Amino acid sequence: MSEVLQNLEDNLKRQVALYDELYTLGGYKQKALIKNNLQEIDSITVREEKLLIEAGLLEKERLLWAEQIGHDLGKIPEDLTLAELAEHYPNLQGVRRELDRVVVSLQEIHEINTQLLEQAMKVLEFTVGMMTHQEKNTYQHPTNLKENKANPKLHLLDRRI
After folding, report:
1. Which of 107, 18, 3, 85 is nearest to 55 (CA)?
2. What is the Cα–Cα distance from 99 to 52, expressed in whole angstroms?
């Protein structure tokens, strides 16, 4: 059983390292979003996709190790949490804490990057609307219909031209 636990711990440590790398890329992407550097964003996204594929493979491997441990504990791997494993096997406590830390960090940077992307989309929609004299947005939430009728659109270009 100790070999299986060691393999699981090694797998989890590799996942922590991979998620740390994703976090670093998220920071680079944040800077590229602020600078509006589309080439850098694209380059980072390609690297993130490769890491996510690797993360999927590590997760499949983790499930195999968890399945072997689950048989001994009488649980299926999908129901076996890392916190529960760490209670039974204290040597997993450190990697559990590291994994928790990196996942929380990833969630935080992802939320910030999502907000930056949403702001960029709003600026783009506004700019396109101004340049095309668009009276009505193509994509509009039904609750915003009354607000838009009360506020006339500003136009960058004069229609008489």
Report:
1. 18
2. 16
d(C-alpha 8, C-alpha 48), whole Å: 24
106-115 pLDDT per residue, tens: 999 999 999 9
pLDDT, position 161: 45
Question: Is residue 128 domain-resident?
Answer: no
CATH number of domain containing 17:
1.20.58
The CA distance from 157 to 126, in Å, is 13
pTM of full prediction above 0.90: no
Domain count, the chain: 1
Report the 3 state secondary structure along the chain: CHHHHHHHHHHHHHHHHHHHHHHHHHHHHHHHHHHCCHHHHHHHHHHHHHHHHHHHHHHHHHHHHHHHHHHHHCCCHHHCCHHHHHHHCHHHHHHHHHHHHHHHHHHHHHHHHHHHHHHHHHHHHHHHHHHHCCCCCCCCCHHHHHHHHHCCCCCCCCCCC
Domain range for 62 = 2-112
